[in-house]
Design goal:
Blueprint (H helix, E strand, L loop, with lengths): L1 H18 L24 E2 L12 E10 L5 E8 L5 E8 L4 E6 L25 E8 L10 E4 L7 E10 L11 E8 L2 E4 L26 H9 L8 E2 L15 E7 L8 H10 L8 E7 L21 E8 L4 E6 L5 E4 L5 E8 L6 H8 L3 E4 L6 E8 L17 H5 L10 H4 L5 E5 L1 H7 L10 E5 L3
Parallel strand pairs: 6-7, 17-18
Antiparallel strand pairs: 1-2, 2-8, 3-6, 3-9, 4-5, 4-8, 9-10, 11-20, 12-19, 13-17, 13-20, 14-15, 14-19, 16-17, 16-21
């Protein structure tokens, strides 16, 4: 009976909430009086200092707060759907461990409109409005449409961080901050309550060689560096499926990663620390790799372009540093696509190198039909290949790769059994590192591998 009463209260609250909504878009800030349980201003834009290794096509909002022991709370989130390729709410504890999530297709939509991410799509000139609920996990029975959970403890306070993610590689206009309204459970009643107090994250400092060089680096950065093998002296590029628990814990995303050679940094202090750790490698400042492109929805017409038959909802290859910053990303809308002359299947060639003063290498790479990412001033560069919501039967699904145990990296054991291409074939990026003169002469001796590709094909 108590459970039924709670469900009735939630449904009634949504109905009342929807019927009493004011048209905020048409009202000026001076005309709107913020109620004491309106927590919208608590959102903060999550940068690389909060989100490790962010994707340049994504926007992240974060609301981290504490919940007093024994308190049962509920938060309502209301906003219009984004036109992006993906949205979600994900909760984490104070140690950044994943707790719960709510994917866009699970969002609760106010009638009469429908969820635009659900296939077949409901086309409307007006964007739908969703109202989702985060409730204390002791009420997890109420995990129906539009509901995700918050931590609950009778014995101690809890800390939770809610992330709202939106991916839109076409339009990076700042996303609308969902309105947050706070409630708490008083017996069987849902009553308005003060906003949960903010709780700022306290980051642990990473180990050498970065300590005192970058003051904001967190421990997960050092962990990721230790989970991906250094490039071999042969110069070959191989991707691995490492433990990604320190990559933000998005349950809808999988990552494969490859480290690039660390070049001697211009900053003498950083260069000294690089040398002390033995991470400088003289196997080339240019990295070139090829991969087969999975099918994905057209980002220019998302979410209407989503059919559910694509290999992945979204993919990207991002160049990041072990300090958790991202320099740039390659995704579908930015990709120069080649196609196999026999099969017509899409491929891409990516060059990663220092841009230089005259952009020479970038111009040459693009003239050859390749894509280019600037190494910038990365110290320990890492390439992350990201797949979002990959189909289980997709041959290139990163989940098919044999996970790389951290002991293999720590003890410098044979990593060949964990090469990504052994499990997902040409969907795994592969290539080699070389010096600039070798790239200018013959694309690092890889031109023969590109002979079957037709260049300068219009984008998909």
């Amino acid at each position: 009976m108590q459970f039924l009463q709670i469900i009735k209260t939630l449904v009634l609250s949504i109905i009342i909430y929807g019927s009493c909504r004011t048209t905020l878009a048409a009202a000026s800030s001076s005309e709107v009086t913020q109620s004491f349980n309106d927590c919208t201003e608590k959102w903060r834009l999550a940068t690389w200092k909060i989100v490790p290794f962010p994707d340049t096509s994504a926007q992240y909002l974060s609301y981290q707060f504490s919940i007093s022991k024994g308190k049962k709370i509920a938060l309502a989130f209301e906003s219009k759907f984004s036109k992006g390729i993906y949205s979600s709410f994900v909760t984490y504890d104070e140690k950044e461990n994943f707790l719960s999530s709510l994917l866009d297709i699970q969002f609760k939509v106010l009638p009469p409109l429908r969820n635009p991410f659900v296939v077949p799509h409901f086309i409307s000139k007006e964007r739908s409005t969703f109202v989702n609920w985060a409730v204390s996990e002791n009420l997890k029975e109420a995990n129906g449409k539009g509901v995700f959970t918050l931590p609950y403890s009778k014995d101690s306070d809890s800390v939770v961080d809610i992330w709202f993610r939106v991916y839109n590689e076409i339009d990076l206009t700042p996303v609308q901050h969902p309105k947050i309204t706070a409630y708490e459970f008083d017996g069987n009643r849902l009553v308005a309550a003060n906003c949960p107090p903010l709780k700022e994250k306290e980051y642990s400092i990473a180990t050498e060689p970065f300590v005192k060089v970058f003051p904001y680096i967190r421990q997960p950065a050092a962990n990721v560096e230790a989970k991906v093998p250094m490039p071999t002296e042969t110069g070959a590029i191989h991707f691995f499926f490492p433990d990604s628990s320190s990559l933000g814990g998005n349950p809808h995303v999988r990552y494969a990663a490859a480290r690039l050679p660390s070049l001697a940094h211009r900053n003498p202090l950083i260069r000294m620390r690089q040398k002390s750790k033995g991470i400088i490698q003289n196997i080339g400042e240019v990295s070139i790799l090829k991969f087969k492109i999975p099918t994905s929805p057209d980002p220019a017409h998302a979410p209407d372009s989503i059919t559910g038959k694509e290999d992945v909802r979204y993919w990207s290859i991002c160049l990041s540093d072990a300090d958790t910053r991202t320099s740039d990303c390659l995704s579908l809308s930015k990709t120069r696509i080649m196609k196999n002359k026999k099969t017509g299947e899409p491929y891409a060639v990516l060059v990663v190198a220092p841009l230089g003063n005259d952009d020479q290498i970038k111009k040459i790479a693009e003239a050859r039909g390749y894509n280019f990412l600037d190494r910038a001033s990365t110290i320990v560069p890492i390439l992350f290949y990201r797949q979002m919501l990959a189909r289980s039967d997709f041959k290139g699904n990163i989940d098919k790769i044999k996970p790389l145990p951290i002991e293999v990296v720590r003890e410098n054991k044979d990593a060949i059994p964990y090469y990504a291409e052994k499990y997902i074939g040409e969907y795994a990026p592969t290539g080699r590192h070389c010096h600039l003169e070798d790239f200018l002469r013959n694309s690092c001796e890889m031109e023969t591998l590109f002979a079957g590709l037709e260049k300068n094909i219009p984008k998909l």
